[in-house]
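Onboarding guide, step 5: your first structure request.
Type a short instruction followed by the sequence, for example:

Predict the 3D structure of this protein.
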Amino acid sequence: MMMNIKLMKKKIIIIAGAIILILIIAAGLQKFTNFKPFSLAWYYISGNYKAQYYRPSDEHFPKTYSGPSAETNLNIFIRDSKFIPNANAMPVGTTVTWRNEDKITHNITGDGWASGDLAPGQSFSKTFDSPGDYQYHCSIHPAMKGELIIR
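The system replies with structure tokens like these:
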């Protein structure tokens, strides 16, 4: 029983010490920084704080969006000598944009079409209007390969 009382006193001392430490830190913040924890706490406790919500009007944010559909646009990134992602299934009419985010020049070459060389930061877009499996690669780096499945 005596052991439990000693243990309980020890816990109370630790908790009291932690509270005092937190108050000292808050006082330092209050005095030496722009953050005012005591003022902020009093503001909320006193009931002066009222939540305010802003709802933008539909005039500025119309409910319909007439931009390009995400379902018919695909971005493929060239990074670390890889096409990311390198295999995709998309609907007919998809426009694919390859973006060279690597440090070296690459190109995209398919059966009967090619991008030409893309320096770092450049991009190339192609729209696929016919269904099929389209294999492509970088002719500068033949190990770089990708595939598009258009349905």
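Each response can be followed by summary notes, for example: The chain is about 25% helix and 30% strand.
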